[in-house]
């Protein structure tokens, strides 16, 4: 029985490892962590091997498990809110340049509108740092030079803006749209 279980899990590993790793990477943008997440999912699968059903639900289980572990990672202390939001904004910007379906373009525009609404709530200096960073793509030293501020002050303002934006979008239940858009672009299932 153990040999049959091993063969089943090994077959599933060979069949789904690469696509699951790509899926995890797309969610968290870190190849090493993506590999760890997928390996953890297969270890969990091995531990639950007596509960395996080969009626087609394994594929869904694997993707859902990778998705959940990826979200857990993004919410963990290993991954700061600023990094998470940086990834969010980078993916949002990347989605703008892709040819997407109308629904995805609508969602991207909605997210952009909410980010724009958010910027109006920021204090003047923080807002200017955020816009120089996001809209003009300037780096911290360039912003510091242009605004005649210290690097630490620019970092502080940018961190505050990103943390506040994370909370703002989370309160409006908009962070999940990025995962949806990313998923629908790939059609993994």
Account of the protein in words:
It contains nine helices and no strands. With 189 residues, it is an all-alpha fold. The longest helix has 27 residues, at 2-28.
Descriptive tags:
189 residues, mainly alpha, disordered C terminus, 9 helices
Please outline what is shown here.
The chain is an all-alpha fold and 189 residues long. Helices cover 79% and strands 0% of the residues.
List the helices and strands in order.
HHHHHHHHH
Helix content: over 70%
- In one word, what is the shape? elongated
Q: How much of the sequence is in beta strands? A: under 5%
Arithmetic mean pLDDT: 76
Count every beta strand, where a strand is a DSSP E run of 2 or more residues: 0
Number of helices: 9
The description of the largest β-sheet is:
none
Q: How does the helix and strand content classify structurally?
A: mainly alpha
Uncertain segments:
178-189
Radius of gyration: 20 Å
* N-to-C CA distance: 30 Å
